[in-house]
Each structure stands twice: as C-alpha cells, then as structure tokens.
Amino acid sequence: MRDGLEIVQKSMLEADVSYSVVQDFMGHVSEKALGKRVLLSLRPNEELVRIVHDELISILGPVDSSLHLKSEGPTIIMLCGLQGSGKTTTCGKLSQLLKEQDIKPMLVAADLQRPAAIEQLHVIGRQLDIPVYSEADNKDPVKVCQNGVAKAKAEGARVVILDTAGRLAIDDELMAELAKIDKKVGPDQVYLVVDGMTGQDAVNSAGAFNDALELDGVIMTKLDGDARGGALLSVKHVTGVPIKFIGTGEHFDALEPFRPEGMASRILQMGDIVAAAREAHRIVDESEREELEAKMASGDFTLDDFKNMMEKVAKPGLMGKMMGLMPGMGQFKEMMDSEEAAGGIRQTIGAINSMTMEERRNPKLIDAHRRTRIAKGAGVQSPVITQLVKQFEMMKPLMQGMMGQGAGGRMKMMQQ
Ligand code: GDP
Ligand code: MG
Known about the structure:
Elements: H1 2-14, H2 19-35, H3 44-60, E1 75-80, H4 87-100, E2 105-110, H5 115-128, E3 132-133, H6 141-155, E4 159-164, H7 172-185, E5 189-195, H8 200-212, E6 217-221, H9 230-239, E7 243-247, E8 255-257, H10 260-268, H11 270-283, H12 286-297, H13 303-313, H14 318-325, H15 330-337, H16 339-353, H17 357-361, H18 368-378, H19 382-404, H20 407-415
Parallel strand pairs: 1-4, 1-5, 2-3, 2-4, 5-6, 6-7
Antiparallel strand pairs: 7-8
Helix pairs in contact: 1-2, 2-3, 3-10, 3-11, 4-5, 6-7, 8-9, 10-11, 11-14, 13-16, 14-15, 16-18, 18-19
Bound molecules: guanosine-5'-diphosphate (GDP) and magnesium ion.
C-alpha cells in the first residue's frame, strides 16, 4: 500500500506535476484510501489506482470546452501566453473548429512585438479563408483590438479572436499591456495558452497570468510529444479555471476538447499500472484468495500458506515483469529477476519442505535440535532456518492484521 502510494507519487513527479500539488494530492488520496480500507483488500494496488484515477479526474474537471458564444454581437476571445506557447497556431485551430460549425471568425493581429507576427496570422487567414484584421503602423495593441472588434461588428462576424503578444519570460510590461486590453476591449473569454512541454515553468507563468487577468480557460499545446501533461494538473491547480482544449500537433485540426479521463490515464501511465495490478492479481486466483482470507481472519496463517505464497511469487520472471510494468520501477526489474532473489525464494521453499506438518503449523516447536535436522534436510546452514522462522513470525501478525484489525491498527501500519 505504502509502496503503491510511492509509485503514484513518483509517477506524478515524473509527469511534471509540481511538488506542492503532488503533496496535496497524496494527502487526499491517502485519506480516501484509508476510508475505503484499501489495506483490507487483497488487491490494494488495483483499488489504489482506482482512487487515484478518480481523484485526478475530479481535480482536472469540470469538462467545459464550450466557447460560450453569445447569441448576439461578436463574441470576443482573447488568447494570451508566453512567446512560442502556440497562441497564433491556436488562433488557426479555433478558427477551423468554428468553420466546421459554419461560423466564420475574424482574427485580430494584436502581437505588435515581433515583426513577423502579423504576416504569420495573415498566412493562417489565407489558408483557412477567414478575414484577418491588422494595422501596419499602429503601435498600440489596445487600439488595434478595438478597431478590429468594431470592424467585426460592422461585418457581422460572430467571433473575434485576438492574437496577443507574448514574451520569452513573464515581465511587467507584457502583463500591463494584456491587462489593458482585457479592461478596454472587454473580451468575453480569456484563454491562457500554455506549452505542455515546459513543465514547471508553465506553472509559474500561469500564476502570473492568472494574477494579471481574469482567465476563463486554459489551452495546453504540444501534448503530441513525450510530455505527459502533468503540468496541466499544476496549471489547473494554480488558475482554477477549466481546461478547454489540448493541442496535439501543428496542423489546424490538431485541437481536442479536453477530456479528464484520457489525461488522468496519461499522467499515471495508467495502462501500465493496471497491467501490473492485473498481473499481481493473477498470482492468487479467486478461490485461493477466499481460502487465504478465511485463514488469515481466523488467525490460522501457517508456514504452509507462506510457502504457497512464495511458490506463486517465484514463478520465473513474474516479479521482474511486474516491476518493469510500473512507472519508475524499471531499475528494480533486474534486481528482482536476479538469480539471487530467485535463489532466496527457492531456499525458503526448500526449508519449509523439510519441516514436518506440525512444525509448519506451529513453528514455536522448532528448537535447536529440530533446526539442525531441518537445515540438513534442506541443505542449508541452521541460521537460515532461524532467520526464516523469524521472518515468518514477523509477517504473520501483519497478514492477520490486514484482515482482522480495527482502524487503529491499520493506521499504525500505514505510518510505519
Ligand atoms: P505563439 O508565439 O504563442 O504565437 O506560438 P506559435 O503559434 O507561433 O507556435 C510556436 C511553435 O509551436 C510553432 O512552431 C507551432 O507550429 C508549434 N505548435 C503550436 N501548437 C502546437 C502543438 O499542439 N503541437 C506541436 N507539436 N507544435 C505546436
Ligand atoms: Mg504568435
């Protein structure tokens, strides 16, 4: 269980979720896991994955990829974000989406920082056959936006998209400029465009944009690459506004309405964790599990049961395969597959085989004399037997505790 939580935590950090968000999240999840008595389950990882998955979905939601178009007059959508985050490209993608619904938007070139920005928007306009408003000599983006909106009104456009300037990093001048556009032009929807590949930086910049502007949504781009999208969770946490769309490529049709399920799986590399849990599940089949459960509940967990468990676990390569499937556990794969690990398990099984049925039921009977006999039979040194019995005695209350103890006992186990 604790291992399971550690795997999840590691997996989230690897997916670029910020540390404070992960801490927060793990707090919630452990609470829920305790509430649902995950430790009582013989499939704790599966149970845990479900809880984590649900929690991710609830944090990433609600789903709202509507552009909230007004029934009258043009709806003004303002895109903002750092330079290179994908604002201009997203202007084209949103236009394509609207065109598919027979709504013709107008684009406004309000990035007056880079000389090529205006031309870039015109190229997109020509490709999609939609009007682009720009002013070659105006240095005031507020005026350009106001004039563009007036033109859109006059021409009866239903949507105006403002393509604003970015910077390589957050600066006060940029924020002041955007805040001014926000105030004077009064966009209906303000979306922050975030580069999904920038990880932690995305979180810092999202905080700054959120402070300066009243954001209505986030669009995260470049999720077609290796980025696992963990930054989305952090950005959502920082801004509190819905994630509208994700960009999954450079083409205009590479814009998807945001779906928390897919993203939760992606963050967790869910497929892999589920596969690992399933594999673990297969070790003990249903009827055996019931039997084991009953035994443990009645306090009747013997060395024979211990041996059975070992035999299942010792199936060649199984442990290694499970480890290899879990995110972040790859490095343990070799260790678990090693001859040493397998040898240890074989030795334990051999030693138990050399015990009488009575000794297996009640290891307390094993005195020095019996120990020597068992060791000889199993071909090991007698301290190995001492160690084995010790191990079993340590495990026994734990196994029984999983089944029979009250909440206090479980709490204690989780904190250990
Ligand atoms: P802006 O400075 O915010 O306007 O960013 P641009 O729209 O000019 O995009 C910067 C670069 O990112 C361009 O090369 C785009 O093709 C690329 N880009 C934008 N969105 C995506 C996306 O979703 N996936 C990929 N792979 N590239 C993208
Ligand atoms: Mg641009």
